Amino acid sequence: MARRQVVGARVRQTVIDLWGNECWLNLPGCTKVGEEDDHIIPFKAGGQGTVANIRRACKHCNISRSNRVLSGYGATLHVVMGPPCAGKSSYVAEHAGSGALILDFDRLAEALMMDVDVKHEATGPLVATAQGAWQGAYNKLARMNAPVEVWLIKSLPSTRAHPRLLEEWLALDYELHVVDPGAATVFDRLAAEHRNEGAKLTARQWYSLHLTQELLDARQRARRARLAELGLRNQCERIDARPQW
């Protein structure tokens, strides 16, 4: 196993001179002050200890990020969120490119049982297993260093392992998409499709968050302005300035 690369003092000082010593990641729990040298393209993915690939991070964020990629520096990650019966899977089918990897909880649950409509008869063991499968696949996709398009379908921006996923997605510059036709439409669809109580509870939890595309766009613009200051993207909305593969 290759040892983790030690960043030279001259490289570190140049990084601080160019981009400062504030933690670049700003993940939940960030202490703000740069204490360690963080590889933008992770060392395990071949990232080098160069000025272009190093930014300062606090110890908490460096550990929390692990080797998850900044979207576009490896996989380009999208998250489609919204209540059950909103049309998230249809949105992904319409917008995902050819060859995209798509992580969908409902598809995982369906693959675990035969001849059972899991949307109507989801049992505790099935839900727990599907949640574990989703988390395991997410952990892999979030670290994907290949130039692949990844779409995550997730009703709520949290899991037990990562209760503040939304802040993490913003920090790592995922493309965020809200699909929500409105509460009246969603609850009418839930009733018409005889969806289980778990789906109805998830819908109520979604609407308690008051998330909108406009709100997420504003937060993402602020984050991308910071990434531009750090030399990690330009000011345009898309990812054209990121490394070409």
UniProtKB/TrEMBL annotation:
<dbReference type="GO" id="GO:0004519">
    <property type="term" value="F:endonuclease activity"/>
</dbReference>
<dbReference type="InterPro" id="IPR002711">
    <property type="entry name" value="HNH"/>
</dbReference>
<feature type="domain" description="HNH">
    <location>
        <begin position="36"/>
        <end position="68"/>
    </location>
</feature>
<dbReference type="InterPro" id="IPR003615">
    <property type="entry name" value="HNH_nuc"/>
</dbReference>
<dbReference type="GO" id="GO:0008270">
    <property type="term" value="F:zinc ion binding"/>
</dbReference>
<dbReference type="Pfam" id="PF01844">
    <property type="entry name" value="HNH"/>
</dbReference>
<dbReference type="GO" id="GO:0003676">
    <property type="term" value="F:nucleic acid binding"/>
</dbReference>
<protein>
    <recommendedName>
        <fullName>HNH domain-containing protein</fullName>
    </recommendedName>
</protein>
<dbReference type="InterPro" id="IPR027417">
    <property type="entry name" value="P-loop_NTPase"/>
</dbReference>
